Amino acid sequence: MIYLDTSVLLAFTLARKMEPARFEAVSKLFQLIDRGVVKAVTSFYALHELLVIAITRTEPDWEAGSEFARQALLALLNTRLLYVPIPRREEKLLRAKLFSALRDPTDLPHAIAAHSAGCTAIVAYDDHFQAIADIIPYKTPDAIVAEFESGLPCS
User: Fold this and answer.
1) How far is CA 71 from the centre of its chain?
2) Rounded to an integer, what distance in angstroms lies between the CA atom of residue 29 and that of residue 7?
3) Does residue 73 fall inside a structural domain?
4) What is the CATH number of the domain that holds 130?
5) Are 104 and 49 in contact (CB under 8 A)?
6) How far apart are CA 143 and CA 102, in angstroms?
7) Cβ atoms within 10 Å of 118's Cβ, excluding its own
8) How far is it, in rounded angstroms, from Cα 122 to Cα 78?
9) Is residue 58 part of a domain?
10) Which value, to the nearest 10 degrees, does the dihedral of the CA atoms of residues 71, 148, 133, 34 take?
11) Buried b / exposed e along 45-78 (16+ C-beta atoms within 10 A)
12) What is the largest distance, in Å, between two alpha-carbon atoms of the chain?
């Protein structure tokens, strides 16, 4: 099972026109997920980040931002993506040292959620996760799709 970071969710929902190459790769990844070829999970923390981006994109027009958020969330809910909760305080305290190499503290909840769920990779367009690749490998959506297309077993 793989963990999808906010950057992947963003490419699939809100940034599809701004980043068409990423959208194409992520769409292929979601096709694999929907067919059951790849099992993927994300956290409510990632969903929260996505919704904050959507809503603040149109600030102070809360109606427009809320509509962006609604459409992004519906796009994700229409997939076979699995969800895990935001890591609890205890989990953060127990696993924070394990992921101390992460420079951006906003990456920590993603790493903890992925580790707690037993994920074999963090899939993102944020290479900050390279810093913990010895614990949970970092891959891009393009790499996961290429593994499938080459016949390699997907993470």
Assistant:
1) 17
2) 14
3) no
4) 3.40.50.1010
5) no
6) 22
7) 10
8) 22
9) no
10) 30
11) bbbebbbebbbeeeeeeeeebeebbeebbeebee
12) 48
Residue 72 domain-assigned (yes or no): no
CA–CA dist 93, 87 (Å, integer)? 10
Beta bridge partners of residue 121, listed in sequence order: 2
| Residues written for the chain | 155
* Domain count within the chain: 1
Residue with tokens 């229409």: 78
Average pLDDT over residues 71-93: 91
CA gap 108, 98 in Å, rounded = 10
Query: Is 67 a domain residue?
Result: no
Q: Is the pLDDT of residue 102 over 80?
A: yes
The whole domain housing 110 covers 2-51+80-149
Position 112 scores a pLDDT of 94
With contact defined as beta carbons under 8 Å apart, do 33 and 40 qualify?
Answer: yes
Measuring CA to CA, which residue among 155, 147, 75 is closest to residue 117?
155
* 146 Cβ neighbours under 8 A, 6+ residues apart: none
For 129-148, write each residue's pLDDT tens digit. 999 999 999 999 999 999 99
Rounded to the nearest 5 percent, the helix, strand and coil shares of the chain are 55, 10, 35
Is the full-model pTM beyond 0.90? yes
